[in-house]
């Protein structure tokens, strides 16, 4: 198996947050989350998502017990059940895997925006979808030289 010594694997913050939001949306909570009159569900979900920026000790000792004991009540019974399902999804799936999504000491990128920007820029370098094989290294070398200046 291939491994890189002293490396740490983390999920991208964007993907972690999107996964939580997608699950809540699949449970039919989009309107409750976006409701400007009641920010309770919005605050609860965002607090959990933003907790990725906190040290694990602070999260486990203070914030997680607070979130677990303050699951928002839904305006209607169906919402309440969906909110409870989101809370039940978070606890066994995300909490034990905290080291994968924690961003507290992550000095690297938290998104893949830099890679996506590079790929978008490469469309400018290559005017055709399938450039000639010999052209590819020349263009890449030219781009690297230009960035080094």
From TrEMBL:
This is Uncharacterized protein. It comes from the Eukaryota.
